[in-house]
Amino acid sequence: MSQESRLIGAGLLAMIFWVIFGLCCVILIFDFDMLSAEQIRNGFIDFFRDKAHEVVPGSPMVPVGDETLLFANAGMNQFKDIFLGLVASDYPRVVNTQKCLRVSGKHNDLEEVGKDTSHHTFFEMLGNWSFDDYFKAEAIEWAWELLTEVWGIEPDRLWAAVFAGDEADGLPEDEEAAKLWTKVTSIHPERVLAFGKKDNFWEMGEIGPCGPCSEIHIDLGPEMCDMKNVPGHKCEVNSGCARYIELWNLVFIQFNRQPGGELLPLSAKYVDTGAGLERIVAVLQNKPSNYDTDLFMPIIDRVSDITGHKYTSRLGDKTDNAFRVIADHIRALTFAITDGAAPSNEGRGYVIRRILRRASRFGRELGMHEPFIYKLVPVVVDCLGDAFGEIRERADHVSTVIESEEASFGRTLDRGIEIFNTAAKRAKKSKDKIVSGEDAFQLYDTYGFPLDLTQLMGRERGLKVDTAKFDELMEAQRERARAAQKNDSLMAVLTDTELPSTEDIQKYHTDSCDSKILGWIDDDGFKNQGGIQTGAQVGLILDETCFYAEAGGQLGDSGLIETDSAEFVVEGTTKIANCVVHRGKVTRGSFAVGQEVKVTVGKDRNSIKKNHTATHLLQWTLQQVLGKSVAQQGSLVGPGYLRFDFTCPKALTGDQIKKVEELVREKIAADLPVTSCIMPRDEAQKLGAMALFGEKYGSEVRVVGIGVDGAERMSEAFSREFCGGTHVSRLGAIVGFKIIKEESISAGVRRITALTGPGLNEYLEKASDIVDELSTILKTPSEALVDRVGRLIKDNKKLSKKLKSAGAASGSDAMTQARGLLRDCEKIGEAHIVIGVLSASSIEQAREAVDMLKKKAKSAAVVLGFEDDGKAVLLAGVTDDLVKRGLKAGDIVKEIAPIVDGGGGGRPQMAEAGGKNPKKINDALTKAAEMIREKLNV
Ligand code: ATP
Ligand code: MG
Fold it and tell me: Given Cys at both, which of 114, 342, 646, 850 links 321, Cβ 3.0 to 4.6 Å?
């Protein structure tokens, strides 16, 4: 090779090297540049932390102590009481990420999921908050700064929308915000638009805090429009297509919507913003859809591994749609179940069940007939477990719950399909070829079939669905839900100026104290003047109390409030914000505002204390015996008993229950001390204090520890829990402990009911009475009872066996008779009509006889009757060939049962009836024969 060609070769090699090197750099730089979802979430938090915002946790997705809301659907839910002025905020500015679920009530995006690129059931809402601190100017300026300067989104892609005003509500346009947009940001004035109430006035629910808002939308480019073929579609902000997506909503809370619809101004002003993390991640990762980001792709890839199908990221594609729905739903399920929801038939549980069923049904589209969704839980944990440690901790529980529900829906789905088939047959016969709204609603309501599924299945058969009727039935159901929500209306009319605070620290120290009446709540609301007389039923409000208001699973106290001449019996105690309400009745004399009273908690308080401390002991002990995966799911502490719900995949064995009881009793016998103290939340968390996922936001928490004296030694306590309840000061006071029931309440969740104190005494007394009574009845001393009963059971078994064989002998008689009937029966063509009375029989033997006759004759209509204990029994059986000819056992029985004064029914192949008049059996059989002849001769 010449020198020249060697040089050229070397030159070429060098060039190839540099090209590859250059490409690698581009790829590296590109990847390096692309922020991960985690970095984007942290970027938001850090940005506002730098602007003096306190970082606080989001609330659990299943709201605690707020029955008006099924799931957290926005960041503001947990701050509702602050906006209402009922409680003060610990900080003037906060920032957080909130787990949201929009599948029910006012915000429901379920039907959107999978069809578009940006609506999920579960999503993270990033938010910055001002509690009567900064207002519109800063909120707008900072949002713009973060999006355009920190994250580098070109200003020309962004649009702002402000509130255009509303005549019916008497609200003017939000000019202040409109002006600020052009003043404090670099947005082009033409890109500030005004929209009406639907888009730019934010309300959490039917009632409560609300206000105008400014939204920031992004233009993703004309190629993203998915409505090009929709006649009249105009591609613009709020037109519903995938080109314009809302990223961030800045809500300026300044009103409180009343139950009648009226808007009252709030005494202070608040900023509440919400930015959808998934949407921002898609923009910053330069992806056309949220599903293409690192928040969803790992889940989609796993679905692909399991099912063998490929995801191609196309909207409107059936298979891709199934991928998206499943990836969305598993995130929702993982978070909702972690936070304490469990599939069931009502409320929250029903919402979870529907999501799961929907995911399962879409799984069938990917050819999955066996449970598989539960296998996606670990991927969700990989994606989000660092930001939300709770899903990592509860992953096993979540998988167990999902797998068991998937398995049971496999069965329900098949049954639903059967019901659909029957409905479809009916529809085919109808004039308009429409599946009735009632059927669609039943499928939706009972079998978890979303309307779109019923419509889809209908279309395959050329049928429509009566959606108007369906909507009407849905509306009726919603109406019922709304009626249930109204109970909360009291909250909305009670604002800061109306409800006083009650000092209730004495509940931890004493059972009685002196106080003063501040007012009461009756049907019309809060009263702070005048008086109440004997018989009045109210919620009494005092300036100070030692009553414990229901919270954290512990029931509220009962007791007495009295003066020398009057008495108010307290039946229960609840808390509204910081106000303790003593619910009860004036039983003597009268009370007036300002009057001094004596407050005394009833004796149940002591039993409640015992049960509450025992509940803590029980939780600790369960973790010792079953392992750390035991997590509290709920509890109820009353005077009579305690109940503790916890995650555990299997029933406890007898040995485990014994061990738990022994360990609890051991601690009680050691008479260890119980200590409580208030400490900063993060310090308590560092100590490892157990908290039910469901504590409300607050910087300080009360911790109850067992095993040490004095708060300074809290770190040495063996049991430490976040708890606001009342407790005994030493374990010895509990005296005894017994588990009386261990049961399952839903998949993966067990419930223990246990007794202490007077409840336990009562139980033992009753048990001892039962033993005494048995002893007398069986004439056996108590220590020999077990032996005696064992022998009785054995004898009983022997006797049953004897009876059975005697029965079998007479059964063979029934068989002989039946065979005789077949031999002599009438025939029409090939069909045998076997009709007759059996002399002695049981229902089991008669059923066997019908089956035998059908098998033997091959083609037969059998009707048998017999008398049993003074009653008439009729059975009919028809072979399939005759059923096809329109002869049905169920029809025969329905026709002839009234003759013996009875009723019955069954399937076309087999049916039964009972009646009061055995004398008419022969008449009934004659009628049956006529019916059969008539049908078969046609
Ligand atoms: P859209 O009109 O797109 O449904 P929205 O008006 O219902 O949004 P808000 O209630 O203002 O949204 O919520 C605040 C932010 O939360 C939105 O700007 C958006 O980024 C995000 N968001 C709302 N709904 C969803 C959802 N279903 N899935 C993902 N993100 C959402
Ligand atoms: Mg919405």
Answer: 114
